[in-house]
Specification:
With 207 residues, the chain is of the alpha/beta class. The chain has one domain: Rossmann fold. The protein has helices at residues 19-28, 48-55, 72-85, 102-107, 128-135, 170-194, and strands spanning 9-14, 36-42, 59-62, 90-93, 112-116, 139-146, 156-163, 197-200, 203-206. It has a 7-stranded mixed β-sheet with strand order 3-2-1-4-5-6-7, with helices on both faces. A two-stranded antiparallel ribbon has the order 8-9. A hairpin with a 2-residue loop joins β8 (197-200) and β9 (203-206). α1 (19-28) packs parallel to α6 (170-194). The longest helix has 25 residues, at 170-194. The radius of gyration is 17 Å and the shape is globular. The two termini are 26 Å apart. 39% of the residues are buried. Keywords: Purine biosynthesis, Transferase.
Length: 207
């Protein structure tokens, strides 16, 4: 009997406390999960998520973007080297507060996903909960999507919805969405890692 194929190795990029990273790492511990969280990489030295990753037994690394004095591609090439040395197959953005250059996006095309706190294509960019409240929508949520050069414009893999309730403010709405993020992201990663969802010629193919 042939040995089972190794699970894809995932590198999670963070800038802060890493709550989505923790949900992904814990999901990946389950029997049958089709990916292994092999590395947590931060652009912020001392980011809280690094300690949380180490507590979970995950390798960590830091590439401080400030050391590159605004040269975004040089910073990304340094990150790419760390990812390569750690034999990473899939890149997952989890609160990584840097906009990628086209070079990095092309390098990881079809192998890099992100989670965004809105029902894309609605409310791209920042302050999505404020945008939702100001627009008066009755539903809000989160989307996991492939990363493409245009911000928050990649094909959507999965979405989760929450109601916008009377009296909601940004904080209460954000908290409700975050609960769904923690549930949604592992499901979307499993789809990508298993090949059930793949990016082909700019479109998601589902198997």
């Amino acid at each position: 009997m042939s040995a089972a194929a190794p699970r894809p190795r995932v590198g999670i990029l963070i800038s802060g406390r890493g709550s989505n990273m923790v949900s992904l790492a814990e999901a990946a511990r389950a029997d049958g999960f089709p990916a292994e969280v092999a590395l947590v990489l931060s652009n912020v030295p001392g980011a809280g998520g690094l300690d949380r990753a180490e507590a979970l037994g995950i390798a960590t690394a830091t590439v401080d973007h400030r050391a590159f004095k605004g040269d975004r591609e040089a910073f990304e090439r340094a990150m790419d080297e760390v990812l390569r040395l750690n034999q990473i197959d899939l890149v997952v953005l989890a609160g990584f507060m840097r906009i990628m250059t086209p070079w990095f996006v092309r390098r990881w095309e079809g192998r890099m996903i992100n989670i965004h706190p809105s029902l894309l294509p609605l409310f791209k960019g920042t302050h999505t909960h404020r945008q939702a409240l100001e627009a008066g929508v009755t539903e809000h949520g989160c989307s996991v999507h492939y990363v493409v050069p245009e911000l928050d414009a990649g094909p959507v893999i999965k979405q989760a919805k929450v109601p916008v309730l009377p009296g909601d403010d940004e904080d209460t709405l954000a908290a409700r969405v975050l609960v769904q993020e923690h549930l949604l992201y592992p499901l979307a990663l499993a789809d990508v890692a298993s090949g059930r969802a793949a990016l082909v010629d700019g479109t998601i193919v589902r198997r």
